[in-house]
Amino acid sequence: MSRSFLPFTGNPLDRASEWRGNSAWLAEQRARSDARVLPFLDLQPLLIGPESGEQTRLGFLTGAQAARFGAPDAQEVFLGLEDGIAHFACDISGFAAARAALDDIGHFREARGASARIPFGEIAILGQAKALLDWHARHGFCARCGVATHSQDGGYRRHCGSCGSDHFPRTDPAVIMLVTDGDRCLLARNRRFATGNVHSTLAGFVEPGESIEEAVRREVMEEVGIRTGAVRYFASQPWPFPSSLMIGCYAEAESRDIRIDGIEIVAARWMGRALVRRMIAGEDSADIALPRREAIAFHLIRNWAEE
Ligand SMILES: [Zn+2]
């Protein structure tokens, strides 16, 4: 089964990682008039098209356009190649002239909202660019000696000239799991879901020294007090808020009594497969809402309901 239905997957760019270390090649690609450069302002991508409606695209400028508003010290990252054309993202936060020059071209929108309005392949490009620029914005200094570091390898490494350390963009693995018990699954309401009585899967970060399976079992026990056994992998989804990789799993229940932690989880219940199927079809609500379709949680639930 193809997993490329998950938003933030299916990036059409060839990351061309073998070229990243070649700074002369990168400079040559960036100098081409047909290079593509996507500006970000405070981690919000430039969009081109109407501010409402669905004809919106990522606001990639040509190299020639981007050269005109010049922000030479802005952090740039190399995203990859498409049809031989190099794509970059550029953080223009703090460059007022660059921002002003873009007013007539498009508008900036926060990444989560933007991802709901652009073509599927562009969502993955947005995720890649946003996660990288976010990392640069927060990791300007060496974690070892405190001195300012410099971007290398097209933005995939920061080097400390003082102590020689290299620092790499981080990705934080998180498990997200649907607990099942035969024809029932467990849906829970997280305190962070402010409105709509959304019930979803459980989730949590993988800790150092922990396997995916161990993280799944620990989080389920912590949040709802249920012991789980077999863990089965489903699919994964990059989630650039700010830098997670959501690892979707199914976990088989070995105990049934729910004991919510009351801290992260404020409600949880077992739901029958037939009911969940009707909820997905919009025929029944059971007084709760399912997670949004852009999230892997929804796909975990739907895939199980249709098994
Ligand atoms: Zn250092």
Record the SSE blueprint.
Blueprint lengths: L22 H9 L4 E6 L2 E5 L8 E2 L2 E2 H7 L5 E8 L2 E7 L4 H7 L4 E2 L2 H5 L4 H19 L11 E3 L4 E3 L6 E2 L4 E10 L2 E7 L11 E4 L6 H13 L3 E12 L4 E10 L11 E8 H8 L15 H10 L2
Parallel strand pairs: 1-6, 11-15
Antiparallel strand pairs: 1-2, 1-4, 2-3, 2-7, 5-6, 8-9, 9-10, 11-12, 11-13, 12-16, 14-15
Helix pairs in contact: 7-8
The site of zinc ion has 8 residues, from loops.
Q: What attributes characterize this protein structure?
A:
307 residues; alpha+beta; seven-stranded mixed sheet; six-stranded mixed sheet; 8 helices; 30% strand; globular; binds zinc ion
* Total DSSP helices: 8
Portion of residues within helices: 25-40%
**Which regions contain 5 or more consecutive residues with pLDDT less than 50?**
none
Radius of gyration, whole Å: 22 Å
Mean pLDDT across all amino acids: 93
The largest sheet is:
7 strands, mixed
* Alpha-carbon distance between the two ends: 12 Å
> What portion of residues belong to β-strands?
25-35%
General shape: globular
The SSE string, one letter per element, is HEEEEHEEHEHHEEEEEEHEEEHH
Hetero groups: zinc ion
What class would the helix/strand composition place it in?
Answer: alpha+beta
Number of strands: 16
